[in-house]
Each structure stands twice: as C-alpha cells, then as structure tokens.
C-alpha cells in the first residue's frame, strides 16, 4: 500500500491534515472516508489498521484529524459535534475534487455518529459502517458529567478524557443535545453495517441494538466478540477492516480487476513499508505477508506457505484427475504439506548446517474405498504432479532488473 499526506480546508478555512491510504498496484475502485473516535486522531492504531486492511482490498481510504486535533489547525475547545460533521463534508468535497467522490463512510465511536449525520449530506455515499458507535449522544456527557454544573455556570470546564485534559465549552454540550435524534438513522436509506463489541465498557452493546432497530434495510450487524471499545488489539481492527471491505461489495460498483495477459505470470507488489504484498495472477488478486513476529501483519500466507500450497493443491488435483480418468471414485483428497530445512538421509556431513536441504513433507489423506493396489498406484501418481517435479528438479531463475 502507499500512503500520501494530504491537507484541505474546513468550513472556517483552517487546514485539516490527513493521510490517504491507497492500494499500490491499482487505481482504487472506491473511496472511503474514515471518522476517528472522540479526542483521537488519524494515527491511532484502529484507523491506521482498518485503513490498511481496506486499501489491501483495493479501496482508497482518507483518514484525517478533526479540527483542533492531531496535526489539524484550530482549537479543540471551539469545536463541537456539528463541526465534526462539517469536517467530514469538507473531506468528501476534497476527494470529489482531487480523486473521486467517496461512496463509503466508516466511523469509530463518536466518529460513527458523525458519519451518520454527514452521510445524509453527502450524495455520493452508498454505504455506512459504524464501529462501537452510540445510538444517541447522551452517553458522551458521562465523560464530563461531574463538570456539567460548572460548564453551565461559567461556560466551560477542564475535563479529563482518556488521561488527557480538554477544555469543554457549554456550546459543545448544547450542540450534543441538539443532535441527539436517533431518527437520523432511519432517514439514511443507505446500506448500513453496525459492528459492535458486546464487551464494550464505554458504549454499551444496547446502542447497537437501538441503531439496528432504527435503521432501514439493507442493514447488517457483526459482533466484534472480545474487542474493547478502542479495538486495541491489532487482530480486532484488521478483522473490522476485512469485514467492511467484503460487506460493501454488495452495494458499490466495482470495475473488473486488472488481469495479467501472460499465462502463468505472477506479479508481486510491495511498497516501502511492512511486508504485506499484493499479488496478481490472471484474474486473481490476493495477499502475501510475514507473521507479526518478524514485523509483518499476517494478512496472508508467507512465501514458503505459498510454495507449499502450490504443492498441496497440485497433488490433490493430480490424484483426482488420474482417479477420474480410471473411473476410481475418491470422495475427497486432503493433502498436507509442511516445509523445513533438514539433513538429507545418510548425508556425509550431518553435523554441518550447510548440508541441510529444502524439505517438503507431504501427507495425503484419501476418503475412498480403493484397494491396496489402487492406493499404491495413487502414491506413485502423487510423485508425478507437475509442482512435485519442479520442486524436486534443478530449476533456473533468470532475473531482469528495471528502474
């Protein structure tokens, strides 16, 4: 994926700073607006991971700092919920002018509520996805309920939210109360996905129930199981991104994916960050990656797992192809392959690590009623699969480097 720093102006001509996450090997088929949670910013782990997951599926994702937060201009104490909605509208106009109108909006927590209000005013929006979002804004007052009397009397108060101090003005509280109508959800008439954790201690799961009841079809709910409100674990934010990417495909237009014309050609594309690699072969697009233990995100199989997958798939195909030609009924062929480096049998220098060779261990499980002679023949056929022959013979790799 590639990341581009962008900036655009809000309705008060203040500069808002954002990051546009793009797929590295294709033009985005759709653009998404991401609204971060209350007092968060674009670089928190949840928006970063969700945006990366969506970009890996071909989406372009704009996440940005609301006015007065992160790298954006303005004073947070002078902002309010309505201002966040206006910021999202400004972001949509920026995408429309510079790239393409956004068709999906994703909002986390209070950003989810802002996304619902903004979607009513952005005509290009086809889909809304909320993550641990409130059905009303009354719960936000709990963050500063001990200061409400002070806010009412003197017009402001210092409030501690998430370990940070923020100055909250009376106009902020008044604006929340004026935008507290759940009927907004029922007026949207757009595809709606609600993702919520039943263990959310900040925005109770009942909010998701109220949103679902108020929304019109098509609407969907997905439980985030053990996730917390902030989606602190990377696996939870990656999962949310993958679910949104798959769900939205039913409601958006997508051009046909690029296809490599040369038979058996594979293209692997990796940017300057991480190891998540986009792969195209023919009409098929998928990911390769490395495990988290070595700095990857584990969004796809690693290179050796891909090689092992090729051997396993080719083995099962070859066996079934032969059996069908012989009219031998095999209900199922299950091939397991594992890769490691091991000493060759009876090697002369077994104490020397350099004497180890690449080893693929294969286990084939047949569900059939073949006799012993037929099973022995299947064992011989397995060794004749094309990928087996390639891996067990000497190959050559010819490299051409272009800059």
Would you kindly provide a written description of the structure presented here, covering whatever features stand out?
The protein is elongated and about 90 Å long. Helices cover about 30% and strands about 25% of the residues. It is α/β, with parallel strands linked by helices and about 400 residues long. The chain folds into three domains: about 1-135 and about 180-250, Rossmann fold (3-Layer(aba) Sandwich), CATH 3.40.50; about 140-170, no CATH class; about 305-390, GMP Synthetase, Chain A, domain 3. A hairpin with a 2-residue loop joins strand 7 (about 155-160) and strand 8 (about 165-170). The longest helix has 23 residues, at about 305-325.
List the keywords:
AB_hydrolase_fold, alpha/beta, Rossmann fold, 11 helices, 31% helix, KH_dom-like_a/b, Osmotically inducible protein C, three-stranded antiparallel sheet, OsmC/Ohr_fam, eight-stranded mixed sheet, 403 residues, 3 domains, GMP Synthetase, Chain A, domain 3
SSE order and pairing:
Layout: E1 2-9, E2 15-22, E3 30-35, H1 45-55, E4 59-64, H2 81-98, E5 104-108, H3 110-119, E6 127-131, H4 148-154, E7 156-161, E8 164-169, H5 170-178, H6 183-186, E9 191-196, H7 206-214, E10 219-223, H8 234-248, E11 267-269, E12 277-281, E13 284-288, H9 303-325, E14 330-343, E15 356-368, H10 372-382, H11 386-392
Parallel strand pairs: 3-4, 3-5, 5-6, 6-9, 9-10
Antiparallel strand pairs: 1-2, 2-4, 7-8, 11-12, 12-13, 14-15
InterPro entries: AB_hydrolase_fold (IPR029058), Hydrolase_4 (IPR022742), KH_dom-like_a/b (IPR015946), OsmC/Ohr_fam (IPR003718), OsmC/Ohrsf (IPR036102)
Organism: Christiangramia salexigens
Pfam families: Hydrolase_4, OsmC
């Amino acid at each position: 994926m590639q990341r581009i720093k962008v900036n655009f102006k809000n309705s008060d001509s203040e500069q808002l700073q954002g990051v546009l996450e793009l797929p590295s090997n294709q033009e985005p088929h759709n653009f998404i607006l991401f609204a971060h949670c209350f007092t968060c910013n674009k670089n928190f782990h949840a928006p970063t991971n969700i945006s990366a997951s969506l970009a890996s599926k071909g989406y372009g994702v704009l996440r940005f700092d609301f006015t007065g937060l992160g790298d954006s201009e303005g004073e947070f104490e002078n902002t309010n919920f309505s201002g966040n909605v206006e910021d999202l509208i400004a972001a949509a106009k920026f995408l429309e002018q510079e790239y393409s109108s956004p068709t999906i909006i994703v909002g986390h927590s209070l950003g989810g509520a802002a996304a619902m209000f903004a979607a009513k005013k952005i005509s290009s929006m086809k889909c809304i996805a909320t993550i641990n979002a409130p059905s009303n804004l009354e719960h936000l007052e709990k963050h500063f309920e001990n200061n409400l009397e002070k806010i009412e009397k003197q017009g402001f108060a210092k409030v501690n939210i998430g370990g940070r101090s923020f100055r909250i003005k009376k106009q902020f509280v008044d604006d929340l109360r004026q935008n507290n109508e759940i009927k907004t959800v029922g007026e949207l008439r757009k595809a709606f996905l609600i993702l919520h954790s039943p263990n959310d201690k900040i925005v109770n799961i009942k909010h998701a129930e109220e949103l679902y009841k108020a929304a019109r079809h098509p609407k969907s709910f997905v439980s985030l199981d053990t996730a917390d409100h902030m989606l602190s674990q990377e696996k939870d934010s990656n999962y949310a991104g993958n679910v949104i990417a798959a769900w939205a495909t039913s409601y958006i237009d997508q051009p046909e994916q690029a296809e490599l014309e040369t038979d058996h050609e594979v293209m692997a594309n990796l940017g300057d960050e991480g190891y998540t690699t986009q792969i195209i072969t023919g009409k098929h697009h998928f990911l390769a990656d490395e495990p988290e233990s070595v700095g990857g995100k584990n969004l796809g199989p690693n290179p050796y797992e891909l090689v092992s997958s090729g051997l396993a798939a080719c083995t099962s195909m070859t066996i079934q192809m032969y059996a069908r030609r012989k009219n031998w009924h095999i209900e199922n062929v299950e091939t397991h392959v594992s890769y490691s480096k091991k000493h060759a049998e009876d090697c002369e220098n077994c104490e020397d690590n350099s004497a180890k060779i690449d080893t693929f261990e294969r286990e084939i499980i047949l569900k059939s009623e073949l006799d012993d002679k037929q099973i022995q023949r299947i064992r011989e056929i397995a060794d004749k699969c094309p990928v087996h022959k390639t891996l067990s013979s000497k190959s050559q790799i010819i490299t051409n480097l272009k800059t």
